[in-house]
## 1
Amino acid sequence: MNATPPLKVLLVDDEPLARLRMRSLLEACVDPRAEVVAEAAAASQAQAWLREHACDLVLLDVQMPGPDGLQLADALRERTAPTGLPAIVFVTAHAEHALRAFELDAIDYLTKPVRRERLQAALARVAQRLAERAAAQAQLQQQQGATAGGEAASADVVIVNDRGRLQRVPVAEVLYFKAELKYLTLRTAQQSLVMDGSLSDLEQRLGERFLRVHRNALVAKAAVRELERHAPTDFAELEGGEGAEGWAVRIAHVNEWLAVSRRQVAAVREALAQGAA
């Protein structure tokens, strides 16, 4: 018998029949198991429920009357909670929002009609993400305890599972993390590694050493070298959305440019000023 507690799921879909079918599919999933703890027919209902309750996963329809699923996910990213944000898996009949969904740290993106095997794979990814988050929090607490005891904080590392090979990367060597669809890219001066994880989780763990310059990028403040305004066509990631104004930051050692959202320009300037002080 599997003693692992089931994943606690919030279903958000404006169609009752769609919620009923998803509930039935979840009941058929066995590894990991999942339990629907609440349902919501609108983003506002889901947000109200999440203010008072916690869950492991939000299965979120994209297209709904009023605020849509993408807007709800964006609002949840702004929320802070001691237990962290729930994982998000989008469910929709259309695939054109997939890139935007992963920029919002979604773990997966399911298209209707959802197959049980595909849902089971998404649940497995959620369970893995939650386990990694718990391990990262435990590691952070251990490191904080070691620092308080006078040990060097430079032992802080990121554990990367790159195609089955575990690698310890010192945080001091990391230039940036960037969301690339379902995965993250960790960039150092010497290499690029693909890893699973969430920018939101990393941002919370790494604290003031890193700066969220864009929805899809978390940059080490020490690696910020230059901020410039460029034509939006200079960078693929600057096409539309937050990067439409054309701001970008140059990263030390690799001389790469990353898009900067309009609301983060002031924070990047402050990081540059602190580095020059």
## 2
Amino acid sequence: MMTRRDWLAGVAACGAMSQRALAASAKSVKMKSVAAVVSIYEPITHSDVLIGKILEGWKQDGATGPALKLSSLYVDQVSDQDLSRKMAAKYNVPIFDSIEKAVTVGTDRIPVDGVISIGEHGDYPLNDKGQQLYPRRRFFKEITDTFQKYNRVVPVFNDKHPGPVWADAKWMYDRAQEMQVPFMAGSSLPLTYRKPELDIPPGSEIEAAVGIGYSELDRYGFHALECFQCLVERRQGAESGVEWVQYLEGDAMWKVLDDGFVSRDVFDAALAAVPKVRQGDVRDDPDAGLFLFKYNDGFVGALFMLQSVNRTSVALTLKGQAKPVATQFEERTEPAHPHFAYLLKSIERMIHTGRPSYPVERTLLTSGILDRALTSRLQDGQKLETPELAIRYQPVAYPHAPLPDLNADPSQQLAR
């Protein structure tokens, strides 16, 4: 296991050179090639802030970047704001009209070392639960069909939650397990800066936890659940999954605080950690909702989705401490959305080692909680028993972004 010191040294070093300087860096770090399968490639989309860093460096300024080379690209939808054609021409990357051709780079074999699948953004329909039906399962199916056809498996990263509907998420996980595909998925926010810095050691005696999220229930609710889970999975004895899930709103959601089912002190600490965009009592927020769930070990999860704030936070009480601790998961925009650099760092590590940097089961669990919460909302807040979410995994103490940003000049090559 890479130590935190090693990882931070690698981040500070910023890896190998950008795509334009790959040959110069190859002497010290062996480059790994990747195929990218993306829904859309426009400015500030996930494709831009992930694939753009492979092409143009961590800060997308033409300087240093990961020890990865983009070998091919598939783009599902092309708009008048498309960047893919411009970037492909600039960096001599072929664009293919099928996922199979992208994964094989137009050959009769699989020459790449990994695949990055980004089904986020673009013109895709919504279902009755408010889930945007991004083609993540289709992407993964065609990628893994190609693995089967050419008899080679390489690591795959799926941006955000697999699915997004539960049946698709579980299908993707099961197929990865069956084919022994090194598989990662998830949000950038568990890897971002924390304000203030907060690191919970595995095996901690966490007595209570409350999360706060904002914006759309599906897109941003997933980010908030990932932030919540990346901390509470470090509680003593975790993780064995979730027993039931419920969505509440209006008076019912605040009653859980008034009745003491969820700690008001922990909620207040989480609320104090995020900036407000509306004045007044948070209970007057007409669009607020609550994802409430109970783990199989009896631990209660509570994620308040508020439209009166514009960031994500988690607060917890630890045994023996009088007051809750809380942190905000920062979303910086400069330079070039750096929290995505730390996500890319974990992807790079998987492609170089052939092993996921952290368990995909965490993201499978958060995907299931989210899907069931949105189902409960559609069913007027019914509590849903969730035996399918008895997902066990062993958490990994993978580090998040250090407090300093990426502005420091690199002083050495990637440390591994």
## 3
Amino acid sequence: MILSRHERMIAKRYLLPGKGERFIFVVASISFVAVMLGVMALVVVMSVMNGFRADLFDKIVGLNGHAVMQGYGGRLPDWREILEESRQTEGVVSATPLIEQPLMASYDGRVEGVLARGMQVEDIRANETINENIVAGDMERLTPGSSRVAIGSRLATALGAVTGGQISLISPQGRSTPFGTVPRIVSYEVAAIFEVGVYDFDKAFVLMPMEDAQTLLLLEDAVGMIEFDTTDPENVREILEPIARNYAAQGVLTDWREMNSQLFDALAVERVVMFWVLSLIILVAVFNILSSLIMLVRAKKRDIAIMRTMGASRRSMMKIFLTIGMTTSTLGTLAGLGLGFLLLHFRQNVVNFVQAVTGQNLWDPSVRFITELPARTDPFEILAIVGLALGSAFVFTLYPAFKAASTDPVQVLRYE
């Protein structure tokens, strides 16, 4: 929509307050602020929702892979054969044998439920999710037969454990005696403490070499499961279908969606609902633009009639008032984007400030799984938000622009 010089001059004049038009300017300013706040709220909330899902996915998959094959009865005897076939399966990036078993842990009289995980040493060294989040100790000290383990930071806090201390793992699979089964209790040195940022993992994980886990759980050479990473997490089931079919008699394949289905489904629903609920703020804002333009058209009816008698076309009037409405919505959208990105940049500082002022814990990791407020901006969603703001403003501006263009100068100036 290209404006001529006099059309630009008139549009600029109407955007600024004139004598007796302060109220119209106030309504237009409210419209600007409303658009800004609506766009800001959508940008911040959608980015946080995306960041929450992406961060949660990265950390969960970093520890549990895209899929796992769980052996029946917690045992997978032919795991080396499955590993060999997985390396020849197209789309499989890695396959990691694991042992996982819920146990009890004791340290200086304190007892907590834990999830013991046994991994091959080379897989432990290659796991970036763990090795990039070491808060104390050294993972290099985890070697087969060393009787050393690494534990999550929140488990260490709950037990009061420190690196170099002795933690005892209590397994119900112990020796059989005439009085029943005696639990197996083995002590290990805490070699390292890690914090991956997912509350459930930091609160329960005890990591050890697989050979030590096999000895502790009396598994001999068997493992409990095999973890798979693929080139495409969204199509993990199709990629691993040959393995699931060939070894269905030994174990069951579960992908990341099934392992965390309730959590990710809830996030997806909440994301859609939040988008449409917050979009109502923008709709309220464009209603304000509509009302301010209607008042402006009524206040400028005599000016419009004079311009029509001087040769201004209906199209010219339409363009002038469309420009006024779109300028307000465009400036509000740009300001909202800027304010939204600013809040995202300082989001954790804002959360900390509000917590300090109110004395409330707004981001309890035991409820929200992740220890810090995440954010990830999707360019396509930003375009959708901008399109929603500008598109709805354009539609709502058409009516007052049409009313201005349809003004009859004869009727308006008859008694002038």
